[in-house]
Design a protein that fits this description.
The protein is an alpha/beta fold. Helices cover about 30% and strands about 20% of the residues. The protein folds into 3 domains: about 190 residues, 3-Layer(aba) Sandwich (Rossmann fold), CATH 3.40.50; about 160 residues, Ubiquitin-like (UB roll) (Roll), CATH 3.10.20.600; about 70 residues, no CATH class. Strand 15 and strand 16 form a beta hairpin. It is globular and about 65 Å long. The N terminus is likely disordered. Bound molecules: iron/sulfur cluster (2 copies).
């Protein structure tokens, strides 16, 4: 028995329900993070996080230095954007966004003769700063959830006066098939993950921290354990999708339930991704804002799969080329993992803050072309980690029964796609539920 298999066997912590898609991580799980060469042009969409877009603070023709701010937050739920290279602003204009639309972006032409060294930004020591200062600094550093959701991190860290945080839970599960960027980050930079966790814990007054890791990442767990202080426990959890969803991870580690419609804050927990924790450390210890991230480039359509450190704004086409180009039989390219990622129509889109992976598949994942009637097998109910009734929700959305959607807790669905994955009738359940949620949101805003 391999050490990895033995490692898997003793693990019982998990949540109820969920699915077991093939992990498909072998191609990159042992590949160290490599830095990609700089390219000629970088495209930084102003909208690359949940919330209001950033507002450009530079104009065409301006010279910018790597790490310099190029856009300021467009509100509280918004963040700062920095240039990943030294060069010249070529334009602020609409460019193709990974969401398929043309969206405003800052386009930067890299200076081929610049050293591309980052001058450390001015920032305070994290020791003894107030929560308000921490929130300001994290917003200044442009940090967002790096697990894919790209929610501005400072918003989560902002502690209302009458609330407290007892536990910080850091998500190192990486439960999406194929992706290994968090795995490699934990294995190669465990000190940064721990340091960022400690900074957050200290500022929020949390006594205890947990880092949850799925059992298929033994090296990462071992490396973190070597450097973790007694106040931070490395918790190995079962390999199951969507173990990395914050509510599922809290359930697996602490057996606490986040109330319906509520937040981890309601049960005195803060959650964050391992990449975000390392980015907090990078800001306070090195003065480096979020200008690059680890991206897993993989799938059967990629000849040389890799984990790459990529400057934000790098065109996906150049990253794919760097990994050998797409094989001729590639049928789908997804940004992120196959379960929750965004399928792309063009490679002419940039790597963004939330881009955890570039996945090239030779068959379309969860192809739903041939749809059959529901056979009432209840597999979708057994898969749903939120204990929802996906088949009923999809039906309600299809017939626009908006009031009933609320009654059946449609907004608790976080679109993990487990229900669609198990449906033998290929019913696009998550797509219907997503539409139902949008209808519900619209009806509420009209009210
Ligand atoms: S209903 Fe939503 S939360 Fe439940 S399995 Fe489907 S997508 Fe996931
Ligand atoms: S899994 Fe598909 S076929 Fe089975 S009950 Fe759900 S919607 Fe119907």
């Amino acid at each position: 028995m391999s050490s990895s298999a033995a490692f898997k066997e003793n693990v019982s912590r998990t949540f109820r329900h969920g699915v077991h898609p093939p992990e498909n991580k072998e191609a990159t799980e042992c590949r160290s993070i490599e830095r990609v060469p700089f390219v000629r042009e970088y495209v930084l969409p102003l909208s690359q996080h949940i919330g209001a877009p950033s507002v450009a603070t530079v104009r065409a023709g301006e010279r910018v230095l790597r790490g310099q701010q190029i856009a300021k937050p467009g509100g509280f739920v918004s963040t700062t954007l920095h240039t990943p290279v030294t060069g010249t602003v070529k334009a602020v204009e609409p460019r193709l966004h990974p969401n398929g639309k043309m969206m405003p972006a800052v386009v930067i032409e890299a200076d081929p003769f610049a050293s591309q060294k980052v001058e450390p930004a001015e920032r305070p020591s994290p020791d003894g700063i107030s929560n308000k200062q921490l929130v300001e600094e994290v917003q200044k550093a442009g940090l967002v959830g790096l697990g894919g959701a790209a929610f501005p991190s400072h918003v989560k860290l902002s502690l209302p006066k009458d609330r407290k945080i007892e536990f910080v839970v850091i998500n190192g599960c990486e439960c999406e098939p194929y992706l290994t960027c968090d795995d490699r980050l934990m294995a190669e930079r465990p000190e940064a993950v721990i340091r960022g966790t400690e900074i957050m814990m200290k500022n929020l007054g949390a006594d205890r921290g947990y880092i949850g890791i799925e059992a298929n990442k033994p090296e990462a767990a071992a490396r973190l354990r070597e450097v973790a202080p007694a106040s931070i426990e490395i918790v190995v959890v079962q390999v199951k999708y969507p173990q990395g969803a914050e509510k599922m991870l809290i359930d697996a580690i602490m057996k606490r339930e986040v109330p319906s419609g509520g937040l981890p804050l309601d049960i005195e927990v803060l959650t964050n991704n391992v990449g975000t924790a390392a980015a907090v450390a990078d800001w306070f210890d090195r003065g480096v804002p979020l200008i690059e991230r680890v991206v897993t480039v993989t799938g059967p359509g990629i000849p040389h799969p890799r984990n790459l450190m990529v400057p934000l704004g790098t065109p996906v086409s150049t990253i794919v080329e760097y990994c050998g180009g797409l094989t001729e039989n590639t049928r789908q390219v997804i940004m992120g993992g196959p379960m929750m990622g965004m399928p792309q129509k063009s490679l002419d889109v940039p790597v963004m803050k939330g881009t955890s992976g570039i996945l090239a598949l030779t068959s379309v994942f969860q192809e739903t072309a041939q749809e059959y009637p529901c056979i009432r097998c209840a597999r979708c109910l057994e898969a749903c980690p939120m204990f929802l009734n996906p088949t009923r929700l999809a039906q309600l959305a299809r017939f626009e029964k908006i009031e009933s959607l609320e009654e059946y807790h449609a907004m608790d669905c976080f679109e993990c796609a487990s229900c669609s994955y198990v449906c033998p009738s290929n019913i696009p359940l998550v797509q219907w539920i997503r539409m139902g949620k949008a209808m519900l949101r619209e009806a509420k805003s009209k009210q």
